[in-house]
Amino acid sequence: IDTANGATYQVADKVFTTLGINHVIINNNPDGVNINRGCGSTHLEMLKDYVVKNKMSLGIAYDGDGDRCLAVDENGEEIDGDKLLAIISDYLKKKGINVKAVDVGDYNITKEINDIGGIGGEKSGHLLIEPKLCYSDAIVSALIILRLYQKHGFKIMDNIVNYYEKDLLN
């Protein structure tokens, strides 16, 4: 878990340790100026290398203020927010869900969720997955991703990502 030397640097470790999740925390030494510097969800290179070099199953990256969450698979391939949203939507049995593009920003996504329901997010890793609260919390997002990974691995992702890339982007 790459905490980007930011807001989640202590809490993430405590949450994952308390839940008994085998993990390693990197970039958890904030000095007041190194937040997001070459690390975290805005710079995935270090996490990609770490996951591959150490033969890990999954890498999770937060941004400095702890509202974005991205993932990296065992091959160092990025799983961006759009793909994570597709995985979560599929898992929650929301087949047939209508996809609606809105202007970028939590405000616009939250407004749409409040108006018509559902879940939302952005490619950057802002995931709004609790419609009643409409918050973007990287640790909560990571726990949901880890639960899906625990139950299905990312074999679940293969079909979803193919669908996502073919049908939603074209």
Brief synopsis:
The chain has 170 residues and is mainly alpha-helical. The protein has helices spanning 11-18, 45-53, 81-91, 106-116, 138-152, 155-168; strands at 58-62, 69-73, 78-79, 120-121, 127-128.
Instruction: Tell me the fraction of residues in β-strands, as a range.
Output: 5-15%
Total number of beta strands: 5
Report the sheet with the most strands, covering strand number, pairing sense and barrel closure: 3 strands, antiparallel
Order of helices and strands: HHEEEHHEEHH
Cα Rg: 16 Å
The low-pLDDT segments are: none
Would you tell me the overall average pLDDT?
A: 82
- What class, by secondary structure content? mainly alpha
Total count of helical runs of at least 4 residues: 6
Choose one word for the global shape: globular
Distance between the termini: 33 Å
User: What strand line-up does the widest sheet have?
Assistant: 1-2-3
